[in-house]
Design brief:
Blueprint lengths: L2 H18 L7 E5 L2 H6 L7 H12 L2 E5 L26 H8 L3 H13 L3 E3 L6 E3 L1 H10 L1 H4 L7 E6 L19 E4 L5 E5 L7 H4 L4 H15 L2 H15 L1
Parallel strand pairs: 6-7
Antiparallel strand pairs: 1-2, 3-4, 5-6, 5-7
């Protein structure tokens, strides 16, 4: 598997959801919490401590995650033309290559690799490539940080990713002042550079809101701690499965 395979798989999931008009603007999620971890977030001498304890016991340690309701999801300043609504042609090798700034051979080889390892199957009726989302998300949760690791780099202007992306901004508290960004000349923020899964990701996400959200959540798992990983994984599963 190559890193661009992950990008293509999430692009296919995005196209599928957009084509069906499902969960495109999803903003409310739930996340399972470790009880001790959740209680550590409430001062023991706080009046809310007992209420928090009882609430978690009653709900099975489930916490609501309400995402930003802001109209602007873009983490950059240059304006892209409105993307064409997805259709059957959007799944073609040529269209995927154009939307992701990949060559047609890269897309074709990637689809073949994913079929060989069982991450894609072909729908009998439509003939379209369908992602086995459960298997993909299991790999992202348990393997992506080891197979495609990322470490914060130099301070650059870029597109916020992981817990700094608009989809997660303010929802997961982290230490430090510098945010993770994909290097991009038109990015809205300065932060520590995080190499995207593939070099064309910063351009590709400007044409696809869902793809931006998905890959930012994947980055939260690539570089985040247990809390970020748990929230991002729960959000991806509730969004996609």
């Amino acid at each position: 598997m190559k890193s661009q395979d992950i990008v293509i798989l999430f692009k296919l999931i995005s196209l599928n959801l957009q084509t069906r008009g499902e969960r495109v603007k999803k903003r409310n999620f739930t996340a399972s919490l470790d009880h001790d971890e959740a209680m550590d977030r409430v001062p023991i001498d706080s009046q809310d401590y007992l209420d928090r304890f009882l609430d978690l016991r009653m709900t099975g340690n489930i916490e609501k995650v309400d995402l930003s309701q802001g109209q602007r999801w873009e983490g950059w300043e240059d304006i892209e033309e409105d993307a064409t609504p997805p259709n059957m042609e959007s799944y073609s090798v040529r269209a995927l290559a154009a939307s992701l700034a990949l060559s047609k051979s890269e897309v074709s080889n990637s689809l073949n690799r994913c079929r060989d390892i069982g991450l894609i199957h072909t729908d009998r009726l439509s003939g379209l490539p369908i992602v086995r989302a459960q298997a993909l998300l299991d790999f992202v949760k348990y393997g992506v940080r080891y197979v495609f690791p990322a470490k914060p780099g130099a301070i650059v202007r870029g597109i916020p990713t992981a817990f700094a992306a608009p989809i997660m901004a303010g929802k997961v508290l982290t230490g430090g002042d510098l945010i993770p960004v994909w290097p991009d000349a038109y990015g809205k923020n300065k932060g520590q550079a995080i190499a995207p899964l593939y070099k064309t990701v910063p351009g590709a996400v400007k044409k696809d809101e869902l793809l931006y959200h998905f890959l930012a959540l994947v980055d939260a798992i690539r570089i985040g701690g247990p809390r970020e990983t748990k929230v991002a994984d729960a959000m991806l599963r509730e969004w996609i499965l």
